[in-house]
Amino acid sequence: PKSAWPHLVEAALLRNTGQNDEATRSLEKAVQKDPQNRRVVGAMVRHLKDLPGDHAARLYDLRKQLVVLVP
Fold first, then answer.
1. Whole-model pTM over 0.85
2. Nearest Cα to 48, choosing from 32, 33, 61?
3. C-alpha 4, offset from chain centre
4. pLDDT at position 1, please?
5. How many CB atoms lie within 10 A of CB 35?
């Protein structure tokens, strides 16, 4: 897909079925497609915050990106 939205929908479905690794990949694709979309970046932040493991570096980068995007 050319748009980020199908990846967001796919990620939500995957996450709801416990497929977190696949959901992460879908969200990364969404961020790559539309890195200027704060909803897309925010969805990735929320997803990573809820996952076990150390995602601090990626969260830091995404939050920095959000600060630039918020008017």
1. yes
2. 61
3. 10
4. 66
5. 13
